[in-house]
Amino acid sequence: MTPAGPEPDPQRLLSGHPAGDPLPPITDKHITAPGQWVLFSPDLTAAVDPWGTTFASNLTPDDTGIGPWTEAQFLKAIREGKSKGMDGTRPLLPPMPWMNIAKMTDEDLKAIFAYLKSLPPVKNVVPNPIAAGM
């Protein structure tokens, strides 16, 4: 966090919510209109909303990110909103706008996948989502 707001860390580009980085407690003073709010962590890698708490995924080619994913899994994740691009997994959760990205062409999605696979891998096990009220 800088005086001008959040600033990306180029060493952690697209590596998701930092493992072991706890969120501060959320109290009633943070929530003035339940069901009509979203809170983001200062680094914009965690969101708290009526669905619960979600964390930005590690999109780097490390094994803790999309390293083991195939292109077909990536396309399925984006087209169908399936976690890890596999049937029987949880849906991709807000604020990930997969339903908007799903309209991109196969060529564009494959180019995004190739770009993500070209990034330096960052080892970072992102926390699982937390259901609302937990």
Question: How would you portray this structure in words?
Answer:
- This protein has helices at residues 71-80, 98-101, 106-118, and strands at residues 39-40, 46-49, 52-55, 130-131.
- The chain is built from 3 helices and 4 strands.
- The longest helix has 13 residues, at 106-118.
- With 134 residues, it is of the alpha+beta class.
- A hairpin with a 2-residue loop joins strand 2 (46-49) and strand 3.
- The chain has one domain (23-131).
Gist of the model:
The chain has helices spanning about 70-80, 100, 105-120, and strands at about 40, 45-50, 50-55, 130.
SSE topology:
Layout lengths: L38 E2 L5 E4 L2 E4 L15 H10 L17 H4 L4 H13 L11 E2 L3
Antiparallel strand pairs: 1-2, 2-3, 3-4
In DSSP terms (H or I, runs of 4 or more residues), the helix count works out at 3
Coarse structural class: alpha+beta
Mean pLDDT: 85
Shape: globular
Strand content: 5-15%
- DSSP strand tally: 4
Tags for this model:
globular, 4 strands, alpha+beta
